[in-house]
Amino acid sequence: MTGNFTVNGKDLVFTFNGDERLLFTLRNHGFTEVKNGCLEGECGACLVLLDDKPVNSCQVFTASVRGKGIKTVKGIGDLHQPHIIQEAFVEAGAVQCGFCTPGMVLASYALLKSNPNPSDAEIKNALDGNLCRCTGYVKIIEAVRLAAQRMQESGGHHE
Ligand code: FES
Ligand code: FES
């Protein structure tokens, strides 16, 4: 079947199987920044924003989200124009193998949009569904704190 989707602001038509999960549809269409970790909704590597809400794309049927807006990590910034959160992750040493990073960054982005000045407990809670095998989480929490501070300094001008 086919369906219309808006991914990172671009209107696209995807072809997919009836029981296909959004993770595979996105990867099959070149959005390989969406990672395949556990396929069980446990790790957050496949997280995307669906109409601005974080969801694990391995748990979503593509057919059920036709017409919706999807954001992958490249939709908030890339190597040439990184988002403040992405810069903060690099600076805080919160990226090691990088496998969890797209999901972590998007979960942080969703958190900071709704709560620009989160406590450590709120950060931990927001990232609860995202697993990282490398960093021990401390640096990730530092990165989110740093990003929150910088986004506030920038007066909320940074999307
Ligand atoms: S791959 Fe989707 S939550 Fe792990
Ligand atoms: S940096 Fe390797 S899993 Fe998080």
Describe the structure.
This protein is an alpha+beta fold and 159 residues long. 33% of the residues lie in helices and 14% in strands. The protein is built from 5 helices and 5 strands, in the order E-E-H-E-E-E-H-H-H-H. A 5-stranded mixed beta sheet has the order 2-1-5-3-4, with helices on one face. A hairpin with a 2-residue loop joins strand 1 (2-7) and strand 2 (10-15). Helix 2 crosses helix 5. It binds FE2/S2 (inorganic) cluster (2 copies). One FE2/S2 (inorganic) cluster (FES) binds at residues 36-39, 41-46, 56, 58.
**Fraction of residues in β-strands:** 5-15%
Which structural class should the secondary elements be placed in?
Answer: alpha+beta
Largest sheet: 5 strands, mixed
What's the total number of strands? 5
Helix content: 25-40%
Ions, cofactors and other bound molecules: FE2/S2 (inorganic) cluster
Given the structure, what is the number of helices? 5
Order of helices and strands: EEHEEEHHHH
Index terms:
159 residues, binds FE2/S2 (inorganic) cluster, alpha+beta, globular, single chain, 5-stranded mixed beta sheet
Secondary-structure map:
Layout: E1 2-7, E2 10-15, H1 22-28, E3 47-50, E4 53-56, E5 69-71, H2 84-91, H3 101-114, H4 120-126, H5 138-153
Parallel strand pairs: 1-5
Antiparallel strand pairs: 1-2, 3-4, 3-5
Helix pairs in contact: 2-5
